Amino acid sequence: MSDELMGGDFSGEKVLLGKEATWELYEQSGFGRPVAEGLELSLVEAAYLLDRGKISVRLQGKDLDFRSFFETATAREAGFEFRYVVYKDLRERGYYVQPGVTDFRVYPRGGKPGKTPAEFYVQVISERHPVALKELVEPARIARQMRKRLMLAVVDEESDITFYEVREKGISGDMKVEAPGGTASLLEDRVILWDPGASELLHERGFYGKPGGGRLQLSLVESAYLLEKGVLDVVDRAGEPLTIEDFNRRAKLIEDDFEMKRRVYRDLRDRNLVVKTGFKFGSHFRVYKRVEGPKKVPHSEYLVHSVPEDYVFHLPVVSRAVRLAHSVRKQMVFAYADDGEVKYLEIRRLKP
């Protein structure tokens, strides 16, 4: 190797260079972290600089070529190869990148470490690795508290990267509804409101149900909400009145995830949003901020899918959901319960 190369030594899961590296690599180019002994590089930083012929690295007194270094690093640091792919990509896009509370901190173009705040926290993951809901919720919460954005960098089997932004989502609408009352019947797996006048008003004012033949067909979650609010009375086939507890118990027998959907539906409606089935889009709900009337239905703003607290995301499924939402000009939002409160997490494609 050339005598001009700055030499470093493997030190656990870091590479330590002398103090002479601090100016050129840290001050000028944003690599590493100054320490008392000199400049400390993470393994991905060291691999990047080694591959570009900027430094040499020794292990037990022996210089390592890139292959030897890379193989050693993968043995010492789980996930190293994925982080290296993402680090290299972001650096070659012109970003300053440093290790952070997730995998990396990324600075905005024109910014650099020590001069400007980071813009993103980056979490790197393989497409094959399932991700628990809490593994996204907590980093997203931390990012918001630190006034950063959370970037999820997904590395596929060909080492291509798809970037997503994950963020807590506050959604609300302006559809306050004063709906008329009425009596409806619970049939096999849906509810029918028989009165033509009440059916028309409930659909026109609140965009509830699907009208047909002077009647209004309501979903289970719509019916539960209207029954709970005192707008609707529901009877069974024998004409016996159902309490909200009776109705919910029967609905759970019909629909396995009814309780989860009902909780999210109620929260969305209480936020003055219009909520309709999202089945055609592969989600539980499509959600509108406002609908002026059945003849003036805009594009819905959100697709909302309800997930349990212990939900695990499979990234190919997430990719399909986000891409579909984008193709129909909607935002993909996942709803979950947190200490009894419904929270929302948006995932969207990001182009760094």
From TrEMBL:
For this UniProt record, the keywords arranged alphabetically read as follows: Endonuclease, Hydrolase, Lyase, Nuclease, tRNA processing
This protein's record includes keyword tRNA processing = yes
One GO cellular component term noted in the UniProt record for this chain: cytoplasm
Q: What is its EC number?
A: 4.6.1.16
Q: Which residues form the tRNA intron endonuclease catalytic domain?
A: 80-163, 258-344
Physiological role: Endonuclease that removes tRNA introns. Cleaves pre-tRNA at the 5'- and 3'-splice sites to release the intron. The products are an intron and two tRNA half-molecules bearing 2',3' cyclic phosphate and 5'-OH termini. Recognizes a pseudosymmetric substrate in which 2 bulged loops of 3 bases are separated by a stem of 4 bp. Endonuclease that removes tRNA introns. Cleaves pre-tRNA at the 5' and 3' splice sites to release the intron. The products are an intron and two tRNA half-molecules bearing 2',3' cyclic phosphate and 5'-OH termini. Recognizes a pseudosymmetric substrate in which 2 bulged loops of 3 bases are separated by a stem of 4 bp.
Tell me what this protein is called: tRNA-splicing endonuclease
